[in-house]
Amino acid sequence: MMASPLLPLLVFLLLLQSSSSVQAQQRINLGSSLTPEGPSSSWLSPSGDFAFGFRQIDGNSSFFLLAVWFDKIGDKTVAWYAKTSNDSEAGPVQVASGSRLQLSGNGVLSLQDPTGAQVWSPKVAGAAYARMLDTGNFVLAAADGSTMWGTFDSPADTILPTQVLTPGMTLRSRIIPTDYSGGRFLVNITTDGILYCLVALPSSNHDGCSWYMKGETKRLVFDATGTVYADFDNGTQANVTYGMIDSLASSYYRATLDSDGVFRQYSYLKISSEWSSASGWTVLDFQPRDICKIMVSVGSGVCGFNSYCRFDGTISQTTCSCPPHYSFLDSNRKYKGCKPDFQTHSCDMDEESAMNEFDLISTDYADWPLADYEQYSPISESECRRLCLIDCFCAITVFHQNSSTCWKKKLPLSNGKMNNDVQRNLLLKVPKNTSSSKPSVTASSKWKNDKRSWILGSSLFLGISILINLLLIFALFLNPVHFTNTTKKYPSVEPSSNLGLPIKVFTYEELEMATDGFQMVLGSGASGIVYMGQLQDEHQTCVAVKKIDKLERETEKEFTIEVQAIGQTNHKNLVRLLGFCTEGKERLLVYEFMANGSLDRFLFGGIRLQWNLRAQLALGVARGLLYLHEECSTQIIHCDIKPQNILLDENFSAKISDFGLAKMLRTKQSHTNTGIRGTRGYVAPEWFKSAGITAKVDVYSFGVILLELICCRRNVESDVAEEDKKILTYWATDSYRCGRVDLMVEGDDEAAMDLKNVERFVEVALWCLQEDPAIRPTMRKVTQMLDGAAAIPTPPDQSSFVGSFLQHLT
């Protein structure tokens, strides 16, 4: 077939269009913008090798990173992503659909969320244009072409060829490869050398730092030949990694501080103008040579507590494993460590029972160098074994044959490692009967050493039982009618299928066994004590068991009805009820276990949660309250919203607890008059008046908590030197009216960079704290204002609620 005479012309036009497109990408003019979805979501480098713009966090997520990535490979490997601040502890900036990146007419690059609030900016003004360079550096340039700011200036976890790090810059690993939150390892470039640190989560405290290289450091360089080296002030250099680069034209390169703490240098071969799906990143070099040998004096080590680390240097792979009869707390986040799959040695068990219940098994080449608490020398191996078996604290014993030395170690075990260098005989305590995960502590094991007390107790019990029976018969004979009328009856427990509950009915014996006799107290409140337990199901589910001891008579009668209402609630921001128990006078509720405890320990302790996380917690609590007030079948007013009743799961999601014991209203009722409930400092003013109690009491309490989340302090702090700061609601109102919201987040760099949103949250809190319940917004409106879906009018200026707040505290 003859070629068309128009074909050369069409080819020329296509080439011309392509050339114009590439040329347009070389210079990004003022007024340009990007959005997460649509054709304008990124800016390419001239070759198209790198892209800068919005990168979806994962295939199903509705959130995006502002990032630089390798654009010609299948997985679009991220080389840089924006963080909430330049601080090493800052988290990634995550935005939703509807956000916008704008290079304004005055040369300012700004990322705005769907509400128009600025969430990130390099804080450089006056740029003439921007460029995405083929080196992987996105820059803001002055009119003369000089770089005013670039992504190379604020690295995340990766550096690229030609990139230079100077003192004050850091590399922070991700928490896991698919989660861009700040991880557990940090490389810090200082003027005195390069520091390698293990970071404790979620506190971000450094469990341990060691000098990787020590000296007066000038910079850390990834040069074009493939060497990553430290350049010192005295003119000397020291290599960190050395991966020879043949040609930047044939391969791409990066060096990344990976989530397992290993700094790896990679290459990726270009097959053609496009990346081949069969290709992949190849490790050229890495440091440290064995990450498992990194040891810190405190903390969990590389792989978490009760686990051990193995490193294969031939393929540069780190593996975390659990010892026999242990399993990971979270198989997707193995750094959280391992837990025993059996009931550990109870200190109530006598020596003979312990010898019968447990055994010691050899674990070759494994070692936990810390956690020693007792040492014996000289000693035989058999005696070393016996001393561990009868000791309820001993989880592992180590015997060294040459020195006849015995070490005992207790849980949790830290800094575990496994390699051929370990030549000691390590013995792990496990149950003998592997088919049963819960060795029982029998009555004989508790009382065998004191038979006289047991006989005396039995005789006394028998005598009392006979006396009580005689008294009951005598009372029934004298007045059977009166006896029948005054005896309190407890509702019988029907099978869960008859109640229509999606929850389980537990026996008291089951819960007693799960909690090991109600030994470990998680907390206590007005309604009872909460114990930690572990169910004997196939998943060994951890639970929190609330033993209720202060129910009103009417509530006691309606306990099963209330439990039914609780069981029908289902929301991600409510603690889930798993089951209950009603036997005799016993009333127990079984909830899912919250791994990170209550919010108050993070707000008022030495740990400060990141601002972005605190904002998400506020939204979570608001959504949970909205569900209780408006979206569940029976309206529930909590009446005791406070940080102690907001629990955090392993992912730090907020979940409201204790709502099952609140005063519940039928949907046709609008208010109730009842006795004062709640906790001092969080109680709404109407509790102290004759006004009816509505869902707005929870709105008021939420307002107090919202201010506490903003400021990371209690609502009342009497030991504060400044008088006007003692009461948080008063100080917040004063700061807002004076236009000094920044004072409320002083010392919190992440929040200080997000003052627009901080002010928005303060305004919502002040609306919630209005003395008149009718003026307070509903939780639906509160959620919309926090989300940015609704405008926030200026809160009314009322000074009266401060006086009322003072009255509530007295």
From TrEMBL:
Signal peptide interval: 1-24
GO CC terms: membrane
Pfam families tied to this protein: B_lectin, Pkinase
Domain Bulb-type lectin: 19-153
Enzyme Commission numbers on file: 2.7.11.1
Compartments it resides in: Membrane
Domain Protein kinase: from-to ranges: 516-802
Catalytic activity: L-threonyl-[protein] + ATP = O-phospho-L-threonyl-[protein] + ADP + H(+); L-seryl-[protein] + ATP = O-phospho-L-seryl-[protein] + ADP + H(+)
Keywords: ATP-binding, Disulfide bond, EGF-like domain, Glycoprotein, Kinase, Lectin, Membrane, Nucleotide-binding, Receptor, Serine/threonine-protein kinase, Signal, Transferase, Transmembrane, Transmembrane helix
GO biological process: response to other organism
Domain of life: Eukaryota
Membrane topology type: Single-pass type I membrane protein
An example Gene Ontology molecular-function term: protein serine kinase activity
Coiled-coil positions: none
Stated name of the protein: Receptor-like serine/threonine-protein kinase
